[in-house]
Write a structure and sequence with these properties.
The protein has 82 residues and is mainly alpha-helical. It is built from four helices and no strands. Helix 2 crosses helix 3.
Length: 82
C-alpha cells in the first residue's frame, strides 16, 4: 500500500481511489485514530493518513464529480449501519 502515494490522485477509476476513499471513510466515520488507520492500511504512520486525507479533501473541493462519488459512498455506508 505504501506505493500508492506515487500514483496521481487523478486516477479515480482505479482500485487506488477505493483505498483513498476507504481511508477517508475510516477517518470520518469511525473512532479510530490516525495511527490505527495507518496500521490497518499498512502505511508508514499517522502522517501518511493525514496526507492522504488532506489530498482527498482538496480534490473534493476542486472536483465536484469526485466529491459526489465520495459522498454517495459515505451515505451508503451510513445507511447500511443505521
Amino acid at each position: 500500500m505504501r506505493v500508492f502515494f506515487l500514483v496521481s490522485l487523478t486516477a479515480l477509476n482505479t482500485p487506488l481511489s477505493i483505498d483513498l476513499t476507504a481511508i477517508i471513510c475510516c477517518q470520518e466515520l469511525t473512532q479510530f485514530n490516525l495511527n490505527e488507520i495507518a496500521e490497518y492500511f499498512d502505511l508508514c504512520g499517522a502522517g501518511s493518513v493525514s496526507y492522504v486525507a488532506c489530498q482527498v479533501r482538496k480534490r473534493r473541493r476542486e472536483d465536484k464529480r469526485f466529491d459526489s462519488k465520495v459522498e454517495r459512498i459515505v451515505d451508503s455506508i451510513i445507511r447500511q449501519v443505521t
